[in-house]
Amino acid sequence: MTAEMSKTLGRSAYECLQSMLCAVLAAVLVFTFGVRIIRVDGESMRETLQDGDLLVVVNSLLCGEYRAGDILIVSRGDFHQGAPIVKRVVATEGQTVDIDFPAGVVYVDGQALSEPYIREPTWTAEGMAFPLTVPEGCLFLMGDNRNDSEDSRSSSLGPVDSRCVLGRAALLAVPGKTEETRREWSRMGRLD
Questions:
Q1: Are 169 and 73 in contact (CB under 8 A)?
Q2: Which residue of 10, 71, 110, 146 pairs with 169 in a disulfide if CB–CB is 3.0 to 4.6 A?
Q3: Which range has highest mean pLDDT (38-47, 70-79, 100-109, 174-183)?
Q4: Is 152 a catalytic residue?
Q5: Catalytic-role residue among 44, 60, 149, 152
Q6: 167 pairs with which residues across the strands?
Q7: Nearest to residue 89, comparing CAs of 114, 112, 72, 106?
Q8: Strand pairing class (160-161; 138-142)
Q9: Helices and strands (H and E) in the chain: how many
Q10: Is 75 a catalytic residue?
Q11: DSSP alpha helices (H): ranges in 30-175?
């Protein structure tokens, strides 16, 4: 091998290594500050989300304001040992939530919510007293599987400080699979 060939080979290897390092660094930055992948653990968001679903989550720094209907991933150290949980925003700060448990109806600021995404009406009380006005900087969150969800109705969680939000679920990337079910690929896509 000539000196010229050795020099060219060394330069090519250096450029290849530099390109790989830049790609890895870019991926780390995107997944640290832009998006992340979260696995749904549990049944609290059925039928919208299933146990084992993989979600693409937009970092909370990029989300802007949260609105009713948003699906959020939150983590609070004193709840479920800080494990991320997936819930839907029902009300934001200053709004008043009331629940008619015998009828299964959730009210926000006196208006009954239209919730076509819930599995069944809200019959289960979890310990919070209603009506409840959501404190400043907090969100009232509930699972779509209302009678099998530990959420803001529970005195162990209550309204959640918005600083505990990890991000907003944007896409269902890979549907989960259980022993009883197959992956439902048709469920993939944007979460509204």
A1: yes
A2: 71
A3: 100-109
A4: no
A5: 44
A6: 59, 73
A7: 72
A8: antiparallel
A9: 1, 12
A10: no
A11: none
Phi then psi dihedrals of residue 32, to 5 deg:
-90, -45
Q: CA 22, CA 40: separation in Å to the nearest integer?
A: 31
Q: What is the pLDDT of residues 149-178, one digit of tens each?
A: 999 999 899 999 999 998 899 888 888 876
Which residue in 60, 87, 152, 162 is the catalytic one? Answer: 87
Residue type, position 143, single letter: G
Q: Are 146 and 120 in contact (CB under 8 A)?
A: yes
pLDDT band at 62 (very low <50, low <70, confident <90, very high): low
From the CB of residue 83, how many other CB atoms can be counted at a distance below 10 Å?
Answer: 11
Rounded to the nearest angstrom, the gap between the alpha carbon of residue 146 and the centroid of all alpha carbons in its chain is 16
3 state SS of 165: strand
